[in-house]
Amino acid sequence: MYKRTIFRLVLAIAIAIGIILGVWQMRPPAANEDCPHFQRMMYNIERWSPRPRHGGTDAARAEIARVRAGIIAEIEEMGLEAIIHEVVYTRDEVAAARQLLAGRRTINDRYFRGDRLYLQNILVRLEAAESDRVVIFVAHYDSALNSPGAADAMTPVAAMLEAMRVHASSQNLANNIYFLFTDGEEIGALGALAFIRDHPELGERIDMLVNLEAQGNSGGLILFETTPEPSAMLNVWRRAAVRPIGFSLGQPVYEQLNTFTDFNFFLRYNWRGVNLAIIEGGRHYHTPGDNFANLDRNTAHHFLTTAMGLANYAAANPLNIPESSHSAVFFPLLPGNMVIMSHLAAYILSMLACAAALVYIIFKRRSVILMILTALTILATIFLHEASYLFWLPLIIITSSCFLEKWPIARRGAQILTVFVALLLWTPLIFAVGALYMIW
Predict the structure, then answer these.
(1) β-bridge partners, 330
(2) Nearest partner of 77 among 186, 204, 165, 139, judged by Cα
(3) Is 292 helix (H, G, I), strand (E, B) or coil?
(4) Cβ(220)–Cβ(211) under 8 Å?
(5) Residue among 95, 99, 119 nearest 108 (CA)
């Protein structure tokens, strides 16, 4: 009797720890308030996000001009050149661009001056002496209609400026490091589209594009979308980022949402890269609540450490990411740790797990739980392979426990481990789905 009580107690502890660690996997690390880069970043966010900034009204047009001038002043203060990429769209060109992105959608007439739409991207280039390969960071500096846009996306903009500041006078860069601040993202990623079309040669030189976004104002920075065959880029990101968080399942989920980022066009034109965003605090997304006062400081710091970590890595290490890499399944497993594997490896592990479970069911003993989990693993592997790890990893452990009948303590331990691992896998996913529900 006491053995059963101990088992239940240990199981309860494992459940509690699994849930806590599962949620913790989604949290950003604590902000270093004493970091001068963080202090300057927060100062810039506060002064550049008191009011909406876009081209839809005279006041918002004046505000985006003020912010643009401030960004350029920061760049020039570093001794760097801010290259202004001016964009002019006709009404027909805007309609065609938005058809590409999101179907039959129109743009508010307030954004036009006469029959033209005017945007200004800002590009900064840190050139390497002996490499033509490029790592480029992208964020937009305009805001939604009624939002000050402190998180979306002044926080990424300010983080990129600090990453730029670190390497403004660096010598012997291993890669060219570019920073692109786009205009017009909130009205259809039109600045990004124009930049792509006007710089077709740049796409062939890019090893990694890092798009930084926000669909909330708190939580950890999540990698949720990539270009095809991203394994080499994912390994760079895992090595360079502080507290990396990412889900391969994020891509098929995101594709079902009625939303977009600049990355949609980079993806369409085959510029290789990754898309990262925060998704917690969705009640403030595109509202007046996306202001400096409501911005989570730990989240802001996570943007900073991610941008700086990737820039530092790109400055010191030739990436040489091959044109043909591998497709990948990736997911968090314990805070700060990412599992990244090829689709083939995930298929093999799934098949091995199912085969072992079927051997036990056929030749040893029927188990309803094992049969259900095996069926779910097969279905996930066939129809949504990005999510198959949610089933085959617990299946591997629970099947191993079934073959430990002669060692009851080991069998109980494997059962507890199955529950613990399942919670580590499922809790962050449920947490992310809940955050997305707050937005949509």
Answers:
(1) 340
(2) 165
(3) helix
(4) no
(5) 95
Examine the pLDDT at 305 and tell me if it is beyond 90: yes
pLDDT class for 99, splitting at 50, 70, 90?
A: confident
Q: What's 36-332's CATH class?
A: alpha beta
Question: Which single residue is written with the structure tokens 């790592």?
Answer: 135
Per-residue confidence (pLDDT) for residue 16, from 0 to 100: 96
In one letter, which amino acid is 433?
V
From residue 221, alpha-carbon distances to 125, 227, 231, 280 in Å are 25, 18, 19, 10
Tokens at 390, concatenated: 């949610």
pLDDT of residue 259: 82
Tell which residue, 346, 145, 325, 178, has the closest CA to residue 248: 346
User: Are the beta carbons of 179 and 114 closer than 8 angstroms?
Assistant: no
218 DSSP 8-state letter: B
Q: Would you tell me the crossing angle of helices 2-24 and 408-439 to the nearest 10 degrees? A: 30
Contact (CB, 8 A) for 188 and 102: yes
DSSP 204-217: TTEEEEEEEEESSS
* CA 156 to chain centroid: 12
Query: Could you give the dihedral angle defined by the CA atoms of residues 55, 57, 63 and 69, in that order, rounded to the nearest 10 degrees?
Result: 40
Determine contact, residues 265/189, Cβ cutoff 8 Å: yes
Strands 245-246 and 222-226: parallel
Q: Report residue 211 as tokens.
A: 């798009």
Q: Tell me which H or E stretch contains 86.
A: strand 83-90
Whole-number pLDDT of residue 279:
94
What SS3 class is residue 204?
coil
- pLDDT (tens digit, 9 = 90+) per residue, 59-91? 999 999 999 999 999 999 999 999 999 999 999
- Chain mean pLDDT for the chain: 93
Give, in degrees to the nearest 5, the angle at Cα 267 between 266 and 268. 90
Give percent above pLDDT 90 in the chain: 81
Torsion of CA 355, 356, 358, 361, to 10 degrees: 180
Tell me the mean pLDDT in the region 316-344. Answer: 88
Q: Per-residue pLDDT for 440 more than 60?
A: no
User: Where in the chain is CATH 3.40.630.10?
Assistant: 36-332
Cβ proximity of 26 and 245 under 8 Å: yes
pTM score > 0.90 for this model? Answer: yes
The answer to whether the Cα torsion of 224, 225, 230, 236 is positive or negative is negative
Q: Which among 60, 66, 149 is positioned nearest to 110, based on CA atoms? A: 60
| pLDDT in the model for residue 207 | 94
Query: Do 106 and 202 meet the contact criterion of CB atoms below 8 Å apart?
Result: no
Q: Is 200 helix (H, G, I), strand (E, B) or coil?
A: helix
